Amino acid sequence: MSKPAGNPFRYFNSSPEVIRLVVMMYVRFPLSLRNVEDLLFERGIDIGHETVRLWWNRFGPLFAGDIRRQRVSRMKGFRHWQWHLDEMYVKIDGEMVYLWRAVDHEGEVLESYVTKTRDKRAALAFMKKALRRHGSPETVTTDGLRSFGATLNELGIRDRQEIGRWANNRVENSHQPLRRRERAMLRFRRMKALQKFASVHASFHNHFSLERHLTDRKTYKERRSATQAEWQSPMA
Asked: CA geometry: angle at 110 spanning 105 and 114, to 5°?
């Protein structure tokens, strides 16, 4: 979604800082709308849960778009040389749909794409979208789903596919934060809503994921401060 002309906060009485805090809390953490409302009330901010819903729907894609643009500009010259692809089941109104996800070798979520089927046609649409945005990887790690093999064969990169028993744990583990959000939201109700939230959540996850288990406390604090300062800049 492109940034609208002018100040996007101009019709809101609340400050941009409060709106950023609300959107960040709801998208990043496994909280319900009412959980966010109660936590903000503890901090002296009195808003309703429907306001939380309005703000995340309006500003979530805008913040995510700004985060994505900043990351793309920094990543120019670096290649996502290893992709991990997988699909996860999501139930919407009693019907099973599929959320295709691609992450790179560092766990960054590259693409999310919702379809009603998990056949070659759906996998091909997903792959074309990912390749258009991120270029061509050196290796593609998948599970044994035949749709991946047929898609990579049609794209002419079947020789880059890797399949192993635990080779795709990177993307399997990356499903967990979204699963926690799904439970907190009491499931999704429309495919469009799932696609929107998955895309926004991916950008927020990439921005705030600091891999604290891989660094010492001092380095982690420095990265956290830099991340927080950068978070204050979108839509400023």
From this structure: 130
